[in-house]
Structures are given as C-alpha cells and as structure tokens.
Amino acid sequence: MRLRCVRVLEDRVDFVLEVGAPGSSAVRASAAAALMERLPGLADHRCSTGGDHLFTEELAVTEPAHLFEHLVLEIMACAGSPRSVHGQTVWRKGDDVFRVSIYDDDDAVCVGAARLALRMIEDAFAGRTVRDPRDAIERIGSLRATPSRKRSAIDPPRAAVLRYPATPEPGDPHDVDVREEGVIGPATPP
Ligand SMILES: [Zn+2]
What we know:
Layout (H helix, E strand, L loop, with lengths): L1 E7 L4 E6 L6 H14 L7 E2 L7 H7 L2 H15 L7 E6 L5 E7 L3 H20 L7 H8 L14 H8 L14 E6 L7
Helix pairs in contact: 1-2, 1-4, 3-4, 4-5
Bound molecules: zinc ion.
The site of zinc ion has 6 residues, from helix 3 and strand 6.
C-alpha cells in the first residue's frame, strides 16, 4: 500500500492510497489478527458496511485501505483524541486507488497516526512481527496542539450526523461505488 498524497482540509484530513495486490484471504485474516493484538480497541469499532457480522470479522476480509482507516482512528484515540473522531473510505470497484477521510481533532496527530498505521499494516501483510505501537503513540500524542483549533470536528451533534449518514444524496458528485463510514465504539446509534 502506498500513500499517494495527503490533503489537510478544514474539517478533515484526506489520504489517497494506492493498494497493490491485497493478498490472499489467509494473509488478510492473519494480518488483521496481528493488528488486533496490538490495538485491541479495534474490536469496539463500528462500520456502516458491517451488516450483521462482528467488526473483527469485517476487518479480516475488508480492503487494506479500510483497515488503514480504522487503524488511524484507533491510534488517534490511544493518543488522546476523543472517541468521536470518525472516518470514511471511498473507492471504485476494480480501481486500486482509495480515499480515506479522517474527521480528526488534530491534524498533526492524524498524520502521525497515519504514518504508524501504514508501517503496522506493511509489517502485518509481510508476515513480520507487528511492532509494539505504545512508544510511537506516546510521541504522536505529544504532537497535539492545545487547545484544539478543531472544536467543530468533535461537536457531538455534528459527529452523530456524520457517523450515520442517510443514503447518499441524489446527484452526489462523488463518483464512487463503495462508501463506508467508520466510528470508534461503543456504538451509539441514534
Ligand atoms: Zn469501517
């Protein structure tokens, strides 16, 4: 997986990722298990595409870019971000370019978390031991600007709207086939 670009926007940070061959289902499943072991909070996440199965099962079969989204969210939460940070992954079927948007509370923490997430995913998919992220998370947390200039990003009513969007608006300009929204648990559906 290669990071093609990062865009820091008013309300979010966008990451454009190129994902190569995703690996066999066995590789994906063992990579997901290795990542869960290092970041057990992932088990509490929820997804708009989750359906009935457990998030842990979703992670074992999903696109690596989607895995990246949830890793970034979890690392940010471990680094002190509120659990209302949330994300979205969009892609076109058959294309290997993904856009991951993180509605973050702090851009520096978000980009630091993304860097660590990429390394962890790289290790997990290569079958290497996934590094213990705790020291890196502490360093990422120290990047935080206080007070946050992004108060609106964590405003609960707004976060609730972004978490559970209705069906896409007619004429939605985003030319995408798949869109999913991820949040950090515990789930609090409206
Ligand atoms: Zn998700």
